[in-house]
Amino acid sequence: MKTLSCLMVLGCLAVPCIQAQEVLTLEQAWRIALAESPTEAIVAARSEQALARARQARSAYQPRLDATGSGARINYSDALRELNPALDGSDDEFGAALRATYLLWDGGTRRARLDAATFGAEAAAFSQRDARLDLLANVGRAFTTAQLARENLRIANADAAFQNRQLEDVRIREAAGDASRADRLNFDIRRLGAENAAVSAQADFEAAMAALGALLGLEATDTLPPPAPVDLNAAALPAPELESAWNEALEFLPVLRQAQAQVEAARASIGIARGDYRPTISAFGDLAGVRKDDPGFESDDFGTVVGAQIAWSLWDGGDRRGRVEEAESALREAEAGARSVLLQAYSRLATALTDYAAAVRAEQITGETLALSLENRNLVEKAFRAGQENLLRLNEAQRDFTNAEALAMQARLTREQGWIDLQRARGLLLPPDAE
Predict the structure, then answer these.
(1) Tens of pLDDT along 393-405?
(2) Which residues pair with 309 in a beta bridge?
(3) I need a surface site. Which of 32, 72, 96, 419 has the fewest CB within 10 A?
(4) Can you tell me the distance from the alpha carbon of 131 to that of 56, in angstroms, rounded to the nearest whole number?
């Protein structure tokens, strides 16, 4: 909780600072989400509730002290006064009592209830960590989506600028008689198409930024800077082997430990149900007094009682047996659920490793394609200006380059998201300086 509080303070301080910056990094987005996202607040509150239930269960080991007081006016009936002529027509009667009780033994129910609540709190804490990993992964996905939208907008604007350059050049050539009206119309049409693509890309970018802001938990009045540009030269991080990655997941993946804590809580619940088969023994002490006419109690008005009590339900029609059977069935369900979670976690990790390796290879291929497409476009453009290539070839070269750049950006961000998914599957997805 201390770490979370620090993150919340840092997040509150960070939002105005972020707004003043030119770009937003993924690590900054993560920190804002941990501090501002309602999702984080929800799971934190659930964890606190589970801890409170554990404290409630622990209180059963403490004695109980209860105080009562009463005051009454008694009007006696005529029949009762005839039986007891000493009675007046009415009396004022006041009472005060203090009772202390202490449970000595309850068949292990108290211990089992505390165990169940403690494991429940542990499961809630791991659930909070797992929800935090989901939040960070979702933020990563939204962030890379916004990055891709921004890059698509840049590519569309660059294509429009290219078409504008060609249009201005062909107008000069048309005036000199070296180009036709059809050549000028070609570039005019392609300029308009590129501008239309830029309008659509701008809308996609704004929608992606709005989705990212909502996921971060920011208000509508908060303005996020655009995400940092994509660095196509950033090297891919090496992926671990499946065996070592799985060993890490077994240690760090909170959903696995949450499932095991739920199993232990279900096992403790059987002890709660079985405890009703045993007697309960408690000690008590009473200090009680009754006074007539006024509440001015004195020591002589009080008497004391000290004793012990044993209670044992000998037959309840099968209710206890049914509750034990229900708890045993719940344990079997929790054990099966834990095994299912384990299998799903392994499958998710193996899939993440495969997808990441494929994304790395796809990025390499699209990077090579982009380099070749750029070189080809530049050569064709130069040859077109020299009259050695036709317009169709230039259009094709520019289209290939634009498509290659878009695919390279998509592949780069797919690899980035693949790494985020892989870290999520390993249970290691956390921003720097966060627990």
Answers:
(1) 999 999 999 999 9
(2) 282
(3) 72
(4) 25
